[in-house]
Design brief:
Layout (H helix, E strand, L loop, with lengths): L2 E9 L10 E6 L7 E11 L1 H8 L4 E6 L5 E8 L11 E4 L12 E5 L3 E3 L6 H5 L2 H14 L11 E6 L4 H13 L2 E6 L3 H10 L3 E3 L5 H7 L5 E6 L7 H7 E9 L18 E4 L4 H4 L6 H15 L7 E7 L2 H12 L6 E5 L3
Parallel strand pairs: 9-10, 9-12, 10-11, 12-13, 13-14, 15-16
Antiparallel strand pairs: 1-2, 1-4, 3-5, 3-7, 3-16, 5-6, 6-8
Amino acid sequence: MPTMKALAVFEALPSSDPDCFVEIQRERPVASGHDLLVRIDAISVNPTDAKDRLEIAGRRDTPLILGWDMCGEVIATGEKVSQFKVGDKVISAGDISRQGSYAEYQLVDERISAMKPPGLTDRQAATLPLTSLAAWEALYDRLEIPAAGSETSSAILIIGAAGGLGSMAIQFARQFSDCTVIATASRPETRAWCLELGAHHIIDHSGDLCAQIKDIGFETVPYILNCSNNIPYWETMSEIVTPEGSICLVSSTKAKLDLDLFMKKSVRINYELMFTRSLFQTETMHLQGAVLSRLSDMISSGKVHHVMTKQFGAMTTKTLSEAHTLIESGKMIGKIAVSGMQ
């Protein structure tokens, strides 16, 4: 059987530890069913990568290959594949029940993949899948914000808006809805970034959000997307959200939270996990491929831009450690990209 190189983790070592990532050899996977076997040309590193690494308990007996964003070339297809052929350049965010993209090759399902948007480099394209899908689903499937032309005046608050997810959410909300987009950012560079992406207002999440919301002319907001930790904003969100409003959360919370804070207002609390559809093979799984396919038109028209702000060289144990260190700093703007293995 042909083999491939991969960069794996076995335990929750600090990203600065030289053994944090280990190069291994393993059998190259074989495409079957709806699978595409893709040669990885570029990946993006996401906060969930670091989270999954740091949550490893003890030392694993088997390697864990992380990575949930990739751009690459199809080199083989399963017998049920109908949308792609060998030689196509594709993007995908993968599936957390399978091995990830920190490798030379990866299996991805065609239903959650799309052709690489033209005009972008491999690295730029690799930064799109995960956060684009999470942002689109959070806004339009979970929160159900009104689409453009609905003649419904509304507003959305995006907490922690300068990261990868928030960066795409700002653009989608601004371009495809009539919502007033209120983004939170605390540093001059993140404030400038959010304004550049299309936010109407910027407020500081390190300050009094309730007072700042009122200062820009809103008593409450009907939609809140929290891209940050839930605990620091839990009570504040209950005060800011409009009665019968809706909140979408993307971070897991181990602590018990008081849902009764939202009962009086009949607020709808939603969770968004981009991997739900692939993990459970839901009937709506194919919609992820459709959203990724729409990105080509969005980008070609100039309505949406990639959010790569930092790029490293070829994928090695060193470059992945550097990328994870940057992610863990909590000061990342946009997305990180890394080229494929050499």
